[in-house]
Every structure is written in structure tokens, then in C-alpha cells.
Amino acid sequence: PRKKLITTMSEPDELYTVRAQYWLGHYALSLDEARQAARRPMPPHLKSEREELVLRAQLALGNYDKVIADGSGMDKPLSLQALALHAKYLSSSLDVRPSVVDNLKVLMSNPEAASNTSAQLTACHIYLQANLLREALQCVHHGLTMEHLAMCVQIYIKIDRFDLAEESFSLLKQADEDSILAQLASAYLAIAKGSSTSADAVHIFGGLSEQYGPSIMLLNCMAVANMVAGKYEAAESNLKEALSEEYGGLNNADALVNIVVCGQHMGRKPADLERYLNALKAGHADHPFVQGLVQVENAFERESSKYVS
Known about the structure:
- The protein has 309 residues and is mainly α.
- Helices cover 70% and strands 0% of the residues.
- It contains 17 helices and no strands.
- Helix 13 (216-228) packs parallel to helix 15 (253-265).
């Protein structure tokens, strides 16, 4: 049976803006807001959540050493230890990552983990990146927080269970229909359902970008929605903005993958896409897209060498 939903995440409080900026991919802004919030008095549970949000933003910005240093140690809260493991996972080579997952399983066997929704959420994120969907879903399927429900929506979409995704989305709307998490979940569902509803997703992402400013995450999402709608020129425009110097240049793996795929749909020449592929291979060698691409290229090389005299 589903446990009672905790709705504290949706109630406006001292951390409302910190969460909002984080969920929308404005990680540096979220970090700044969290630092400013530290100067204001707040109850203990919000102080703990602020610490978690700081490390989550640092993690998203790729500051793995900082997260590991601040979250490691048996004296640290379980939620911070989980975030430190997430940083270790992301900063480890592919052959080391399974041992990090093993450490996570040990951490989550702690009796405290059964009631620690923050640690459960982080474990879900790590399992997802390890492609352990069953374990990821087990961490959040009770829907104890709005973030848990939002993750349920994404996981159910990933396994093509739109009926269950809609069920989780319905519970999310019941908790707070106007929340950013509910809006994002609505957009993800609209994309997953195909071209007939993808315009709704473009509208949602556009509205959030106008209200809070564009981020790489929002630009990527809008590009995907435009591609599903067959609007490749609009998608390419979104992605070029995401890969502009304003957002750090050719660094974001998702935007690089998306612009290559978009370019193929538009019939772009291989030479036009080469710099994006080179940036992907140079900076994101462990990305599944790059691994698959290298595998196919190596197979082609092996076969073609058979025909060289």
C-alpha cells in the first residue's frame, strides 16, 4: 500500500527558490541561493535539507571532490554519505563503478535508510545511471515526497508503462498542481506520448524559461520536444544556444548528442557534425552514446580491413 504523501517539498519556505533553481538546472544560482539562505534562521530539518541541496548543486556542477570531502565519513548524515557515493560513482572509471554500487547497497541496508527519503532519492539516481531500473524504482515507488513521485514518472516512462507514469503524475498534481516538478513531469509525459502532444511540452518549457531564465537542461528538453514534433530547425536553435559560450561551450553531453541526432534528421553533412562528435569523444568517453558509436566504428574498421588488399 502507498504510504501517505509528504507534501512539505511544495510548501513555500526559506528553501523554495533553492529547490526551484536546482530542479530547473540553474545549479550555480541554486548554490548562491543556498548560501544566502544560510544567513537566515530556519528550523533544523530545513538546515539539513539546505546542506543536501548545496551538495546536490555541487554534484551537478561536476565538483565531485568537494562533494566527496563534505559528505564522506560515518559521522556524516546518511543523506550526505549517499551524495558522496554518487560523486564517487560519477568520478570513477567504468570498471570501478560496480564497487561503488556495492557500497551504496551496504549504505542503504542501514535501518535508517528505510525512512531517509533524501538518501533514497540519491540511491535512485545512482541506480538509474547504473541502468539498474528495478533497484531505482524500489527506492522511490512509495512516493513519499514529490521528488520521489517525479522520479517514478521518469522511470515508468523509461520502461514504457505510461499507465503507471500517469498514476504517479496524478498524485504529483494532487500534492501541488502548479509546482515545478508537476510541470516538468507533465512535459516529460507529453514528449513520451509523441508528436500529437509534444507542443504542450514546448509550451511548458518555454514558460519555465521565461519565468526563471533558460538553462542547459531546459534548452535540451525543449529541443527534444521540438524534435518529437518534427521541428528540427527550432530544435537545432535550442541546442546551439545550449552549446554557446554563455553556457560553457561544447561541454554538455546531452546537448552534443541531441545536436548530432538533430543534424542527421536535417540531412547535415558529416563534416558539419564532426566537431560535436569530436567534443563528445574527447570529453565524454564513458557516455553510452559514445561507447555505442566507438563500438560500431571499430566493427566497421575490422570488416573493412578484410577487403583491403
